[in-house]
């Protein structure tokens, strides 16, 4: 992926190594959802994660404080991994600003928080084991860069474009938040049974995959960011984190009713759909039967 000469976003908060006061936080539905998703996603007991979210027994690891936004700006070349994140985030900003403007709307970019071990967000305290996530309350994307080692070593999805896909997917959730889609889905989830909540979660995640593909399409057309093999890296990453593959790895069998992100086939298909078309209209996962 050609990224070195890209524009660096100024919306990156580097909280790595920072600590926050001990003590619990009141959990919202978003925090509970994060813990439950992590249980399916990474094979971790959700009760353990909820205990961490509540601050039970205090926070043993470094916890980056959500009130600390005064970290020094990232300098190009100083930290290649963080530099890459800043460039990809900047590219998503340019892409979505253009897409929103074409529809007569204004794009409000999210901030992206880099953290180590654990972080305090408006959705609660989250540990690195939960993976990258988007908090709609504070409109921020959170990521521990150690996740990329897991993506490469545990999930078998190496490559810089695979890493970019992860960021673009979380930014896709921000787009859903701005468009009101996320709010409507969360309201419907609260009013229905768990099976409906899971099904709606899958459609929300698949749409974020499609939006990640839309970003890649526009970014490549405007700035020629893709190199040979990049598309395969992205598709491989989408397949690697399908619910069916993760459940098979962690528990030895697949329970489709518990899916929250979609199968490998679904994730690849929707990411590819956005990538090939570059058109938001093809990302309506809620209208298509069976998604």
Q: Tell me about the biggest sheet?
A: 4 strands, mixed
How many domains?
1
The total of helices stands at 10
Show unreliable segments.
20-61
Q: Could you say which overall geometry the principal axes of the C-alpha atoms support?
A: globular
Number of strands: 7
**Radius of gyration from the CA trace?**
18 Å
Can you put this structure into words, describing what you see?
By secondary structure, the chain is an alpha/beta fold. It has one domain. It has ten helices and seven strands. The chain has helices spanning 29-42, 46-53, 80-102, 147-153, 160-179, 181-191, 194-223, 230-240, 243-251, 264-277, and strands at residues 12-14, 63-64, 111-114, 118-121, 124-127, 133-135, 140-143. The strands form two sheets. It has a four-stranded mixed beta sheet, covered by helices on one side. It has a three-stranded mixed beta sheet with strand order 2-4-5. Helix 1 runs antiparallel to helix 2 (46-53) and helix 5 (160-179) packs across helix 7. It is globular. Residues 20-61 have low confidence and may be disordered.
Short key terms for the protein model shown above:
291 residues; four-stranded mixed sheet; three-stranded mixed sheet; 10 helices; 8% strand; globular
In short:
It is built from 10 helices and 7 strands. It has 291 residues and is an alpha/beta fold.
């Amino acid at each position: 992926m050609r990224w070195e000469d890209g524009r660096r976003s100024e919306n990156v908060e580097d909280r790595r190594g920072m600590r926050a006061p001990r003590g619990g936080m009141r959990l919202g539905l978003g925090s509970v959802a994060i813990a439950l998703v992590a249980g399916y996603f990474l094979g971790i007991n959700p009760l353990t994660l909820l205990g961490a979210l509540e601050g039970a027994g205090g926070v043993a690891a470094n916890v980056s404080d959500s009130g600390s936004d005064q970290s020094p700006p990232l300098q190009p070349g100083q930290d290649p991994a963080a530099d890459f994140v800043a460039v990809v985030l900047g590219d998503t900003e340019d892409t979505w600003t253009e897409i929103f403007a074409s529809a007569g709307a204004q794009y409000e970019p999210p901030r992206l928080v880099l953290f180590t071990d654990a972080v305090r967000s408006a959705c609660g305290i989250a540990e690195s084991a939960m993976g990258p996530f988007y908090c709609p309350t504070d409109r921020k994307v959170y990521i521990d860069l150690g996740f990329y080692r897991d993506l490469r070593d545990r999930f078998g999805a190496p490559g810089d474009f695979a890493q970019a896909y992860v960021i673009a997917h979380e930014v896709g959730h921000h787009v859903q938040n701005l468009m009101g889609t996320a709010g409507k889905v969360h309201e419907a989830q609260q009013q229905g049974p768990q099976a409906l909540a899971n099904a709606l979660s899958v459609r929300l995640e698949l749409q974020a995959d499609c939006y990640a593909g839309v970003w890649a399409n526009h970014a490549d057309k405007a700035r020629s960011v893709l190199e040979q093999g990049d598309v395969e890296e992205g598709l491989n990453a989408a397949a690697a984190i399908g619910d069916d593959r993760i459940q098979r790895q962690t528990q030895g069998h697949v329970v489709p009713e518990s899916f929250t992100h979609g199968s490998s086939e679904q994730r690849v298909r929707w990411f590819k759909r956005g990538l090939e078309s570059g058109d938001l209209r093809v990302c309506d996962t809620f209208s298509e039967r069976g998604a």
